[in-house]
UniProtKB/TrEMBL annotation:
<dbReference type="InterPro" id="IPR000528">
    <property type="entry name" value="Plant_nsLTP"/>
</dbReference>
<dbReference type="GO" id="GO:0008289">
    <property type="term" value="F:lipid binding"/>
</dbReference>
<dbReference type="GO" id="GO:0006869">
    <property type="term" value="P:lipid transport"/>
</dbReference>
<comment type="similarity">
    <text>Belongs to the plant LTP family.</text>
</comment>
<comment type="function">
    <text>Plant non-specific lipid-transfer proteins transfer phospholipids as well as galactolipids across membranes. May play a role in wax or cutin deposition in the cell walls of expanding epidermal cells and certain secretory tissues.</text>
</comment>
<dbReference type="Pfam" id="PF00234">
    <property type="entry name" value="Tryp_alpha_amyl"/>
</dbReference>
<keyword id="KW-0446">Lipid-binding</keyword>
<keyword id="KW-0813">Transport</keyword>
<keyword id="KW-1015">Disulfide bond</keyword>
<dbReference type="InterPro" id="IPR016140">
    <property type="entry name" value="Bifunc_inhib/LTP/seed_store"/>
</dbReference>
<feature type="domain" description="Bifunctional inhibitor/plant lipid transfer protein/seed storage helical">
    <location>
        <begin position="37"/>
        <end position="122"/>
    </location>
</feature>
<feature type="signal peptide">
    <location>
        <begin position="1"/>
        <end position="27"/>
    </location>
</feature>
<dbReference type="InterPro" id="IPR036312">
    <property type="entry name" value="Bifun_inhib/LTP/seed_sf"/>
</dbReference>
<keyword id="KW-0732">Signal</keyword>
<protein>
    <recommendedName>
        <fullName>Non-specific lipid-transfer protein</fullName>
    </recommendedName>
</protein>
């Protein structure tokens, strides 16, 4: 797999994590630790065709979106994913951020989306 495929997955992760604002389902009191970018890439690489305007999100893509939802409980996780997005997304030509914004709804993940932009302040994620 090309490294250029990974940043689009980061876009998806950022959408899910930044948008979830604490709706994840992890252990009772302990939020999930921030995921490494490699986990994000593995879970969300199936979303790349959708983010590039090639059809609807696949079942695998939506499964990856749902798998990332537990990370939304932790501000440090949301911030880490946001930082990964900002440093990597510029490497992927043709990623449609408006498509990324629609992904949780298309995958039936009930989250409220923030304004998505490369200028987002990750410390407020």
């Amino acid at each position: 797999m090309s490294i250029l495929c990974y940043p689009a997955a980061v876009v998806v992760a950022a959408v899910v994590i930044l948008a979830s604002s604490g709706t994840g389902v992890m252990g009772a009191d302990e939020p999930a630790p921030p995921p490494p970018c490699s986990t994000v890439y593995d879970e969300l690489q199936a979303c790349i065709p959708y983010l590039s305007g090639r059809g609807d999100p696949s079942k695998e893509c939506c499964g990856g979106v749902k798998a990332m939802q537990p990370y939304s409980k932790s501000k440090s996780s949301r911030s880490a994913i946001c930082q990964c997005l900002k440093s990597m997304v510029s490497l992927v030509p043709g990623v449609d951020l408006s498509a990324a914004s629609k992904l949780p709804k298309k995958c039936n993940v009930n989250v409220k989306l923030p304004e998505l932009s490369l200028d987002i302040d990750c410390s407020k994620a």
